[in-house]
Amino acid sequence: MYITEPQNEHLEDKNTPSSTTPQILKDSSIHEHEETKESVLSQTEETKPQKEKKYSCPPQGNLNKVITNGVALFMLWCVAWSFSGSEVLPGGNLFGLLIIFYSAMIGGKILELIRIPSVPQLPPLLGMLLAGFTIRNVPFLGDYIHINNTWSSTLRNTALTVILIQAGLGLDPQALKHLKRVCLRLALGPCLIEACSTAVISHFLMNFPWQWGFLLGFVVGAVSPAVVVPSMLLLQEKGYGIKKGIPTLLIAASSLDDIIAITGFSACLSIAFSSGSVLKNILASFRDILIGVLAGAVLGIFVRYFPSEDQTKLSLKRAFLILSMCVSAVLGSHHIGLHAAGGLFTLALSFVAGVNWSTEKIRVQRVIKTVWYIFQPLLFGLVGSEVSVTSLKSNAIGICVVTMSLALLVRISCTFLLMCFAGFSFKEKIFIALSWIPKATVQAVLGPLALETASISAPHLEPYSRDVMTIAFLAILITAPNGALIIGILGPKVLARHDPSKINVKLTKLDLH
To answer: Composition bias, kind Basic and acidic residues: at what positions (predicted)?
Structure first.
């Protein structure tokens, strides 16, 4: 008993620290929890004034941004007024351009915000077109918004130059070499067949002269890269049709298609507004083509090596040289009478210059794309503002829609037949044929150009040019949204899907011929 008590006491003493340790840890954890709780409360108390600061005076956040941008725009208007005076007041050219530009921007943003479940997004250019059309045909706005024909023509030709630069830089020599003749068939065949069918239909249905029929055919015969390329890139990212190179094929062929349409239009325009013989006008068109291609190739070689690769801001300098040379060529060729030379000069220069640029070519394309973001609202807004409901005949819209629809059916059938024996399945041929109908950018440039030329040099030909303008407007309005919807809905259903990481999307293994 005596011996065991000290042992028990010793054991109790020994066990005392172990029994109190959990309590100490518990107390410390409670203390830490209280500290973290106090820190969290202090942080929330500190953040409360910050949240309230957004609504304090002066304002912060989005409200501050809106006020700043509004004041900046107003000061820009004040600076323009100090230089030009009445030009920025209602009825002036700058006032009209600013209204059309911002209205087109708002129209495009509204269309981007419209999201319908399971339906592809409509192209923003449709909202820009409708914004310009609304401004022209609302009585109150139409009385105060006027733009000089010279200003409008210069802006549209500049937009055409940007489109052609994008087409030239977008041509991939390796992809074209790999796709071989199928790309040429897709670019040449549908455009030429639709141009010829439009000429025949308009000659008998609308009483167009043959030269005006072919001019109209090349206006509506071009496919729109602004609709086709983004839609195809979206399908390519998801892996649809990449094994057979369908997105690559359509992207490459769209640039060639525009080149053919613009070249044919320039030749037909010079024939329609000249008084000489047809043979003489055709020879003059070939002369313009030869001059434009040779001059563009020579300066393209120059821009390929100047500036050199050791300079800073290389992409900006190259983009500036290309833009300045091409805009000067396009606008200057109209002044000296070489109408077809400027466009081909632009294509040749941009294609030759970008051949050996490798990765730097993508940076130049980004700069040109930024410039296009500025000119796109102006282009489609101006085209929409050219169409007046009061100037249209009662049966003009119906006849124009019938003419365009019949020619479009011929184009779809021709595209399907040309894709036979090219390694595609029946569903893929249907998809390619229906994807080849959207029209927008080229029609927006070439349609008003015929009307402007007629109003300046041949007023008696204005009725024909007005019908060309109307059909170009309707072609954009009808085919651009429908084409985007067809590509977005039909593509995932009929095209085979593969993993993009396992297939080279630029050069596929299928031997297309």
So the answer is: 28-38, 45-55
Confidence of residue 220 (pLDDT cuts 50, 70, 90): very high
C-alpha distances in angstroms, 323 versus 162, 255, 377, 457? 8, 18, 19, 29
Q: Where in the chain are the domains?
A: 55-86, 90-502
Tell me the per-residue pLDDT of 413-435, one tens digit each, with 9 for 90 and over: 999 999 988 889 999 999 999 99
What's the CA gap between 258 and 190, in Å, rounded?
A: 12
Q: Please state the pTM of the whole predicted model.
A: 0.77
Residue with tokens 């940076």: 363
Measured CA to CA, the distance from residue 246 to residue 250 in angstroms comes to: 6
Average pLDDT over residues 259-274: 84
Q: Compute the Cα dihedral for 440, 379, 373, 346 and give only its sign.
A: positive
Instruction: Print burial letters for 307-346: b (CB count within 10 Å at least 16), e (below 16).
Output: eeeeeeebbebbbebbbebbbebbeebbeeebbbbbbbbb
Q: Residue-wise over 42-80: b if at least 16 C-beta within 10 A, else e?
A: eeeeeeeeeeeeeeeeeeeeeeeeeeeeeeeeeeeeeeb
Phi, psi of 163 (to 5 degrees): -60, -45
Q: Which helix (H) or strand (E) holds 250?
A: helix 246-272
Residue 401 in tokens: 């829609």
CA 289 to chain centre: 26
Structure tokens at 26: 């518990």
Q: Which fold has domain 90-502?
A: Na+/H+ antiporter like fold (1.20.1530)
Taking residue 297's Cβ as centre, other Cβ atoms within 10 Å add up to 16
What is the token pair recorded at 167? 């087409």
Question: Cβ-count burial of 358 within 10 angstroms (0-12 exposed, 13-18 middle, 19+ buried)?
Answer: exposed
DSSP letters, 254-287, are HHHHHHHHHHHHHHHHHHHT--S-HHHHHHHHHH
**Residue 145 in contact with residue 99, Cβ under 8 Å?**
yes
Buried-exposed string 383-416: b where 16+ CB fall within 10 A, e elsewhere: bbbbbeeeeeeeebeebbeebbebbbebbbebbb
As a whole number of angstroms, the distance between CA 78 and CA 72 comes to 10
Task: Answer whether 267's CB lies under 8 Å from 340's CB.
Answer: yes
C-alpha pair distances (Å), 18 with each of 14, 21, 22, 35? 8, 5, 7, 26
